[in-house]
């Protein structure tokens, strides 16, 4: 820790709201921010040690009063030990993630476990000048100083190119914070001469391993991407390796030294002869993990004005080759991953998602299902734990074929669902579990309202894990690849078709036996109206082979009607927001325009975020360049053109434009169902208007009875047809 930490005082901290579940602490500079980050992490480590002495972990998913009762029981049993009681009552016990940046620290917390005001007081009370134990290391990065901007940087600084190299390699750098991309770390503390502006015109393609400068920072691009940093060299040292633990080579707090691996002046004389010579003895010459992955979203927000700060990534432990990934040189025996079903057509876009991950300090976004309630319901219906990976589709159109007896469920946006096969064609009329026989095909139509659906299978999909999660990260391209035609998929529990059928409850099996009925012969059965498929019986899985993750199978959940009141193209949806953290950067007229006009979701939208368009761009009061700071899902960032970008689950870890407001949790889930062409009105959750949860506003042609307030449970309707 630097001596500057002792100079940080509580009065120098500015606490800014970032939605209902996060605080942005603004400080005087990078040293103060890193001191606060280190102090918070030290406090959290001490709390984890104290909590580990409790008889069992506290479940933070239940309500506060329930947790309190359980905690008291635990503490009564250990009345002689005050540490567990202190740990449970400490405001930092509810902190879920801490993201340092250039002059801010983002603190995300569980509002059911931590009170915001108590957390602010606790942060103010931290001793930022005290000794903090750090487990940092020194990382040596071999560099060939052959960057395209080396001479330009020398001219900017008024020195020779040789001097730039000597100063860059002659001083130790300190890893400050992650961001921009998985494995990218902002390095600071180099030679004081370095204060270099970004390029006026960012490059569309920067190669992996490029060493650059921007402002007072240096860094190494971990993967090919666009970028505006001044490039002075290249390295073959991988910044991100999915088999390394942790996968990021450089962690916050590490010391980094750049080592020239050959005289740069020799390059000009022998550049052609040296092009094919390896520049480092310990470089890993293999295809980058990022480069081998197929682009997962053709419509990603890669041209965002803040693209230099975009961050998402993942560390993969590939437990199956069944999803068509080519992550590295390791080959997995295809015989261990026999296809249980095949994607015939993924529709507009389909990926694996679950509840996401927490690894922001490595530049990895949380990801996870865009509509958590629909995702959880899909797993509940087939008897899986609610966080089991499922397929998330956008825009409908998916078709798949099963190769053995399986139990599936489709949830989310109201959509036509049909099962076709030897027994004819059966329509699934609601959100429920249904049985499919070998050779049958599942077909999804196109959402009548809403945008995303979830497909869960009993036993769970055998998807690659990435830092403990199978969620695809569409911004960085890491994680499980997007599903493509012909993609074979395996189920995590391995059992043959006969055993699976024997384990299926009679009610489900009987409802699925369709060949004997007259209407089956006609080839068009409505399952859900004439053939309810609910049962409370258990569907038991058989232990899986060691190469697969086993998800404990429980019971089939209660069928639910399709959700009502979801957003639709051309209709207006109201989303509640909490102003801040940077609303003071906008004029009064800009704030008024945020709430008083409709915004249209453009086609340039995806899981990263929704690009919005309004007739009146938002006017800024403060036109300074904003230093990169932590970002959360639901943040509404305003780039220089004044048109908002509403971030969803694959949002960048850090951003470089001011965030005017953040969606509430219910509004964020509803935003995940917004289709292109939908219209939005924002409502101040803390303002004079009723601070209700986000709701869809029907068009003039709809009656008021079509209004439904979304919640963590699904909307109720008596209609047997999918209805909006």
TrEMBL record:
InterPro entries: CT_A_B (IPR003778), CT_C_D (IPR003833), Cyclophilin-like_dom_sf (IPR029000), PxpC (IPR052708). Keywords: ATP-binding, Hydrolase, Nucleotide-binding. Residues 690-724 have a biased composition (Polar residues). It comes from the Bacteria. It holds the Pfam family CT_C_D. Residues 13-250, 361-700 form the Carboxyltransferase domain. Residues 58-77, 508-534, 680-724 are annotated as: Disordered. This is Urea amidolyase family protein. It comes from Bifidobacterium amazonense.
């Amino acid at each position: 820790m630097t001596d500057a930490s002792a100079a940080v005082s509580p009065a120098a901290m500015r606490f800014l709201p970032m939605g209902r579940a996060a605080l942005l602490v603004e400080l005087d500079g990078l040293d103060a921010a890193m001191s606060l980050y280190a102090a918070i992490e030290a406090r959290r480590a001490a709390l984890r040690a104290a909590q580990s002495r409790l008889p069992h972990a506290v479940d933070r998913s239940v309500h506060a009063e329930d947790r309190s009762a359980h905690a008291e029981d635990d503490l009564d049993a250990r009345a002689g030990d005050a540490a567990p009681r202190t740990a449970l009552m400490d405001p930092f016990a509810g902190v879920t993630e801490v993201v340092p940046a250039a002059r801010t620290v983002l603190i995300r917390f569980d509002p059911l476990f931590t009170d915001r005001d108590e957390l602010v007081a606790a942060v103010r009370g931290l001793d930022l000048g005290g000794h903090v134990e750090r487990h940092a290391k020194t990382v040596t990065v071999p560099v060939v100083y052959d960057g395209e901007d080396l001479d330009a940087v020398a001219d900017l600084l008024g020195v020779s190119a040789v001097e730039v190299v000597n100063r860059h390699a002659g001083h130790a750098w300190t890893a400050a914070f992650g961001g921009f991309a998985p494995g990218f770390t902002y390095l600071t503390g180099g030679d004081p001469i370095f204060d270099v502006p970004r390029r006026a015109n960012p490059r569309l393609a920067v190669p992996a391993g490029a060493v650059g400068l921007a402002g007072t920072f240096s860094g190494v691009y971990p993967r090919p991407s666009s970028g505006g940093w001044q490039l002075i060299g290249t390295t073959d040292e991988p910044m991100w390796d999915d088999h390394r633990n942790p996968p990021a080579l450089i962690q916050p707090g590490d010391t980094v030294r750049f080592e020239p691996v050959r005289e740069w002046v020799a390059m000009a004389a022998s550049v052609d002869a040296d092009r094919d010579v390896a520049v480092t003895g310990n470089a890993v010459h293999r295809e980058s993990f990022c480069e081998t992955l197929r682009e997962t979203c053709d419509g990603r927000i890669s041209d965002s004005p803040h693209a230099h700060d975009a961050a998402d990534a993942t560390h993969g432990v590939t437990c199956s080759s069944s999803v068509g990934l080519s992550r590295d040189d390791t080959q997995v025996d295809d015989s261990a991953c026999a296809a249980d079903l095949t994607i015939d057509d993924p529709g507009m876009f389909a990926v694996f998602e679950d509840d996401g991950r927490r690894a922001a300090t490595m530049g990895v976004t949380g990801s996870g299902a865009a509509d958590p309630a629909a995702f959880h319901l899909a797993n509940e219906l087939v008897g899986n734990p609610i966080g089991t990976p499922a397929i998330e589709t956008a825009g409908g159109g998916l078709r798949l074929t099963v190769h053995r007896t399986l139990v599936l469920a489709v949830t989310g946006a109201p959509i036509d669902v049909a099962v076709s096969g030897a027994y004819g064609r059966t329509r699934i009329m609601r959100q429920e579990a249904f049985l499919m026989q070998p050779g049958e095909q599942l077909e999804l139509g196109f959402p009548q309202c809403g945008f995303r659906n979830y497909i869960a299978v009993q036993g769970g999909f055998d998807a690659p894990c990435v830092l403990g999660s199978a969620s695809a990260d569409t911004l960085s391209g890491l994680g499980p690849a997007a599903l493509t035609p012909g993609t074979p998929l395996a189920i995590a529990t391995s059992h043959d078709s006969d055993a699976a059928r024997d384990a299926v409850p009679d009610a489900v099996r009987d409802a699925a036996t369709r060949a004997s009925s007259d209407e089956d012969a006609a080839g068009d059965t409505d399952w859900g109206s004439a053939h309810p498929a609910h049962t409370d019986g258990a569907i038991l899985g058989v232990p899986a082979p060691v190469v697969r993750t086993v998800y404990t199978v429980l019971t089939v959940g209660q069928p639910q009607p399709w959700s009502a009141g979801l957003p639709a193209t051309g209709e207006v949806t109201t989303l509640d927001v909490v102003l801040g953290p940077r609303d003071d950067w906008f004029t009064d007229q800009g704030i008024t325009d945020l709430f008083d006009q409709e915004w249209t979701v453009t086609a340039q939208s995806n899981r990263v975020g929704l690009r919005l368009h309004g007739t009146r761009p938002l006017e800024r009061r403060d036109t300074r360049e904003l230093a990169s700071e932590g970002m959360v899902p639901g943040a509404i960032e305003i780039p220089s053109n004044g048109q908002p970008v509403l971030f969803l689950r694959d949002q960048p870890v850090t951003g470089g434009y001011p965030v005017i407001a953040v969606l509430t949790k219910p509004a964020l889930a509803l935003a995940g169902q917004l289709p292109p062409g939908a219209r939005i009105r924002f409502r101040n959750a803390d303002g004079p208007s009723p601070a209700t949860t986000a709701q869809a506003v029907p068009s003039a042609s709809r009656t008021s009875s079509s209004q439904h307030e979304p919640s963590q449970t699904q909307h109720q309707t008596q209609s047997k047809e999918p209805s909006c």
